[in-house]
Automatic annotation (TrEMBL):
Its EC number is 2.6.1.9. Keywords: Amino-acid biosynthesis, Aminotransferase, Histidine biosynthesis, Pyridoxal phosphate, Transferase. This is Histidinol-phosphate aminotransferase. Pathway: Amino-acid biosynthesis; L-histidine biosynthesis; L-histidine from 5-phospho-alpha-D-ribose 1-diphosphate: step 7/9. The modification N6-(pyridoxal phosphate)lysine is found at residue 230. Homodimer. It comes from Thiothrix unzii. Belongs to the class-II pyridoxal-phosphate-dependent aminotransferase family. Histidinol-phosphate aminotransferase subfamily. It catalyses: L-histidinol phosphate + 2-oxoglutarate = 3-(imidazol-4-yl)-2-oxopropyl phosphate + L-glutamate.
């Protein structure tokens, strides 16, 4: 007999990379450099590590199921009320809560081409329809491959209940300006939830970049999601959050697992949030790395998509998969993004100066081979 499954057979699972130890064994090399998952090259905040050690003493206890202290700390830091915050097991978990609360097989979600893969997975997993808007074309003057807000708006129908927008977007690094996004929100139907995924927002140094948390009162249908996986360096612990109107937070809380964020993650995230020095170092390291990468691209004639995140997506102008393999043999892991409709691009996480140099040299070598 066949297993009776719902629409899940049509899903394309998120493709994580192989464990580094496994790759090192397979390739017979050591000291692999992973610049493939937009992780923080400085590690985790020392304060978070200390909090983690302290939290190890109470592993027998369930975590605080409401995440009271972490929500309080987030609320204080950003001038919010804690009833606006929903914690998740990574922001992916929050994205899933949104899909479960607002989508079903009668409804649809709008996303852009080249958008973060998880929007598609959480939408299709609840049987909802995906409405995919064309992104900007490759020859767009300012933001090639970026989300196109007019196209996103045009895709909204009576069925649409959620629009997922990443700002900046992964895997492109492209972004939407304050004015453009604000006018999109003004025009979006009030019964459509607009999710602004700000996983990389702390890295952005552009002037014309929104602080969407200040828009929550104006737009009761807005949800902003953020994560501790990137600038806070806690990807392994899985903690992220949504900020919204309290009515939406209440709905998300109804579909949330009671202990979705574990006690170690709660403790470390709270400490990381307070570690401004680490945050500043991370921002500075990334800014310097972007300068280094842009210079290397200019010097070598490599085209790249404009980025304000902690990664740069380079147009290899030939199939990128063999280059990915060749870089791997040089001991550098980057991310091929054919699955995102960009088969000639490689997405490379910005590392420390030394890591960037190693990757740039490896790229030169494999391109010359
Ligand atoms: N949104 C975007 C745009 C991302 O790139 C990522 C991480 N790849 C996430 C959300 C999810 O991050 P996490 O679940 O680790 O919080």
């Amino acid at each position: 007999k066949q297993l009776a499954v719902t629409g899940v057979q049509a899903l394309h699972p998120y493709q994580p990379g192989k464990p580094i130890e496994e790759l090192e064994r397979e390739l017979g090399i050591s000291n692999i450099l992973k610049l493939a998952s937009n992780e923080n090259p400085l590690g985790a905040s020392p304060q978070a590590q200390a909090a983690l050690t302290a939290a190890l003493k109470t592993l027998e206890l369930y975590p605080d199921g409401s995440g009271y202290q972490l929500k309080q700390a987030i609320a204080e830091k950003f001038g919010l009320h804690s009833n606006q915050i929903t914690l998740g097991n990574g922001s992916n978990d929050v994205l899933e809560l949104i899909a479960r609360a607002f989508l079903d097989n009668q409804r649809a979600a709008v996303i852009s081409e080249h958008a973060f893969a998880v929007y598609q997975i959480v939408t299709q997993a609840v049987g909802a329809e995906l409405q995919i808007a064309k992104a900007n074309p490759a020859d767009h003057q300012t933001m090639p491959y970026g989300h196109n807000l007019a196209n996103l708006a045009a895709k909204i129908t009576d069925k649409t209940r959620v629009v997922f927008i990443a700002n900046p977007n992964n895997p492109t690094g492209t972004w939407l300006s304050t004015t453009a996004l604000h006018s999109f929100l003004q025009r979006a139907p009030s019964d459509v939830i607009v999710v602004l995924d700000e996983a990389y927002t702390e890295y952005v140094q552009e002037v014309e970049f929104p602080n969407a948390l200040t828009w929550l009162e104006e737009f009761p249908n807005l949800i902003v999601t953020r994560t501790f996986s990137k600038i806070y360096g806690l990807a392994g612990l899985r903690v992220g959050y949504a900020v919204s109107n309290p009515v939406i937070a209440d709905l998300l809380n109804r579909v949330r697992q009671p202990f979705n964020v574990n006690s170690l993650a709660l403790a470390a995230a709270q400490a990381a949030l307070a570690d401004d020095a680490f945050l500043e170092r991370s921002v500075d390291t990334n800014a310097a790395g972007l300068v280094q990468w842009r210079a290397a691209c200019a010097e070598n004639g490599w085209e790249y998509i404009p980025t304000v995140g902690n990664f740069i997506t380079v147009d290899m102008q030939r199939p990128a998969a063999p280059l990915y393999d060749a870089l791997l043999r040089e001991g550098v892991i980057v991310r091929p993004i054919g699955g995102y409709g960009l088969p000639q691009h490689l997405r490379i996480t910005i590392g420390t100066t030394a890591q960037n140099t190693r990757c740039i040299e490896a790229l030169k070598k494999v391109l010359a081979a």
